Amino acid sequence: MLASSVQRSKPTPYPSKARSALIRRAVVVVLILVALTLITISFRSPTSGALHGLQGAGSSALRPFQIAATRVAQPFRDGYDYLSSLSSAKSENAKLKKQIVEYRRDILIAEGRAAKYPQLLKLLKFEQGRSFPDGYRAVNAAVIAPPSGPFAHTMTIEAGSSNGVRLNSPVVSDGGLVGIVTNVFPHTATVTLLTDRYVWAVDPRTGVRGGVAPGPGGTLQLTEVSKQKLVHKNDPLITAGTRSARYPDLYPYGIPIGRVASVGATDTATFLQVQVQPIANLGSLEAVAVLVPKTPRR
Asked: What is the pLDDT of residues 116-167, one digit of tens each?
């Protein structure tokens, strides 16, 4: 029995890859043929045929699933539409905000130009008027850096040596003295205001002379006026001009400075206490005119 050979069963061969691929292709071909056949029958069959009835029954059977799928997908569709509309609204909102900023900027630019227009007209009138100093020409300039505080007495203008501005050139605005150029650059210049300078002045009505100098708190006062002199409230004060050929005044004769605001006296004081109100609004200047001599100073 041990020596007898036992016949084993033949192993089942596994399908090869080529055979599996052939089967899949055959199934695909059969499904395509069936689909084409059904389509052909559907087009050629009457509207009330058995095939149409079968299609109607299939549609009725699948209707609940279609409705359920629609209801399940509806929230996602609504969410997508909401996000899409929200993104579009945000984009439109950003665009409108940008346009509003641009419109406001244009309005501010227009208002700024309109605000400077009256002062420029006054400068032009002063330049062309009878009171314009002889031997000088005007260089009109915008103020680009006004005084930074109540105790600041300088400002920067948008005109310099390239425009003909020179050191120690008088500066006017609104027909009144503002100050004098104390520093010059190619395209800008620094102006020291009247509130930090000493200007020799005269009252054209009475002939009283004195020095307009800074007073307490940024005010102006007419100094060195004897008590025996007559000075009245609202009297005009103008630059006195040169009193000596050897020591010429930096300010030409006849530039309006201001008016007498008040006149007072004390028993212990040697001179009158004369307060001066400047013509130029030194705290809110937008444009000025620099008076440049037509011939160089010697």
From this structure: 666 666 676 666 665 667 778 889 999 998 887 767 789 999 999 999 999 9
CA separation (Å) from 11 to 6, 8, 15, 119? 15, 9, 12, 113
Q: Which residues pair with 237 in a beta bridge?
A: 258
* Nearest by Cα to 179 from 207, 143, 233: 143
- Kindly list the distances between the CA atom of residue 182 and the CA atoms of 77, 86, 171, 221, in Å, as whole numbers in the listed order: 73, 60, 11, 22
Number of residues that this document lists for the chain: 298
Spatial distance between the Cα atoms of 193 and 145, rounded to a whole number of angstroms: 13
Q: Which domain holds residue 245?
A: 136-293
154 HSE (CA, 13 A, CB side): 10
Residue 182 lies in a domain: yes
Q: How far apart are CA 53 and CA 214, in angstroms?
A: 110
CATH number at 263 reads 2.40.10.340
pLDDT in tens, 36-68: 776 776 666 665 555 566 666 656 666 676 676
β-strands 256-264, 236-239 pairing: antiparallel
pTM: 0.57
Rounded Cα–Cα distance for residues 55 and 52 (Å):
5
Record the tokens describing residue 197, joined without a space: 């300078």
Does 26 map to a domain?
Answer: no
Domain count, the chain: 1
